[in-house]
Amino acid sequence: MNDSSRVVSILGGYGIFGGRIAEALSHDERCLVRVIGRNAKIGGNFASRIGAEFRSCVLDDRDSLRKAIEGSFIVIHAAGPFQKTDFRVAELCLEIGAHYLDLADARDYVAGIVRLDDEARRRGLMVSSGVSSTPAVTSAMIESIRHEFSRIDGIHTALSPGNQNPRGASTIAAVLSYLGRKIRVWRDGQWVERPGWGDVKRLEFPPPVGRRRVHNCDVPELELFPSLFDARTVRFSAGLELNLLNYLLSICALPCRWFGLDLSRRAGFFLKASLMLFPFGTTNGSLAIWVTGRDHTDRPIERRIAIVTDYDGPATPSSAAIVLSQKILESGPPRTGAFPCVGVLTLDEILVHLRPLGVWCVRGDEAGWQIRG
Predict the structure, then answer these.
(1) pTM higher than 0.70
(2) What pLDDT does residue 109 have?
(3) Which of 166, 243, 160, 163 shows the shortest CA–CA distance to 205?
């Protein structure tokens, strides 16, 4: 480690995604990684293994949080879920003069980060939310094919992880938070309400993933993409590889819809139930997008683009934070202010990081999936 190294602190830095980020950045001599979390034994052992510093922190305790992140150049918040939280971590980063990135997939949280824009600009800092699959990676995927369209009519994004990929309670809690609840969706140029985990579709993902069942999800793309890409319809669906788990969630959605139950506090139970089926299925998953519209001769076209994982599911959600942190360490923030992480990274930048990890990109059109790149 050289004398000019800067501290990159990772909240939840020994979790599934935060741990991936911490380990990747621990090999970068431009920074000193600081792992932050509640469990001193697990976090300390992990930090010691990757050559990082560990600091214990209770996220809801402002003094504890300040002590944990003080002296940081970048703070990466990977301690979700973000569905029912405020911006206290980002605000504290502004106070101490640190750039802030998070892996939030909560729609209102990611879209609402702009309320800190004036203060972030005044301090010359970058505050970016959604530095993960949604919406950092999905927006980069669409931008890579946008030039083929004169007009985008529809965007349908779908995510299906392999059952043998690691998962945590925070990811499951995010799904449970909107299970059976009404979701605002942009359809044919107007907002409509649809049930969370409803509107079941069976989509054909690129091989070896194949056909899988997906359902409505409440994610930042639904709020951001109608204006960002001037699309008339925006959908986001997700599903699990094993239909047994999909059916279980669909059944659980019914009392949530009828009686307003919130099952997000039962994330631990659902995690244990899903892990009982861990030996089944595969490690293959995909994040795929179908875009329809008109080409530059006004003919209707469809373009498909997908990221496919072989064995390393957490690689994609953690990729954007790693790549963006390295950009900031290399030449400073691409821009200052507070904003959702769209238009900040290119797909090529992300794929340079992902390809060595057994993750690849596939493209296609109306005829199906065709080109692996």
Answers:
(1) yes
(2) 96
(3) 160
Report the alpha-carbon distance of residue 215 to residue 203 in Å, rounded: 10
Task: Count the Cβ atoms, other than its own, within 10 Å of residue 288.
Answer: 27
**Structural domains in the chain, sorted by start:** 6-132+314-345 (3.40.50.720), 134-313+353-372 (3.30.360.10)
* Residue in the block written with tokens 């976090």: 43
Residue 331: which region, alpha, beta or left (left: phi > 0; alpha: psi -120 to 50)? alpha
pLDDT value at residue 83: 84
- Mean pLDDT, rounded, for 52-57: 96
Q: Is the pLDDT of residue 2 over 60?
A: no
Give one DSSP letter per residue of 260-303, joined into a string: ----GGGHHHHHHHHHTTTTSS-S-EEEEEEEEEE-TTS-EEEE
Cα–Cα nearest to 265, from 172, 138, 351: 172
pLDDT of residue 274: 85
Bridge partners (DSSP) listed for residue 61: none
Q: Note the pLDDT of residue 373.
A: 63
Q: How distant is the alpha carbon of residue 242 from its chain centre?
A: 21
Cβ distance 8 to 34 under 8 Å? yes
β-sheet bridge partners, residue 18: none
Distance CA 128, CA 31 (A): 19
**Hey, which residues does 201 pair with through a beta bridge?**
214
- What does the pLDDT look like over 328-363, one tens digit per residue? 999 999 999 999 999 999 999 999 999 999 999 999
Report yes or no: 239 and 212 within 8 Å, Cβ to Cβ. Answer: yes
Residue 146 confidence (pLDDT) above 90:
yes
Q: Give the closest residue to 236 by CA, choosing from 248, 251, 225, 250.
A: 225
Among the listed residues 31, 6, 5, the one whose alpha carbon sits nearest the alpha carbon of residue 97:
6
What tens digit of pLDDT does each residue of 241-292 get?
A: 999 999 999 999 898 888 888 888 787 888 888 888 889 999 999 999 999 9
Strand runs labelled E in the chain: 6-11, 31-37, 53-56, 74-77, 99-102, 126-129, 151-160, 182-187, 190-195, 201-204, 211-216, 233-238, 285-294, 300-309, 337-340, 359-365, 368-372
In the chain, how many H helices and how many E strands?
A: 13, 17
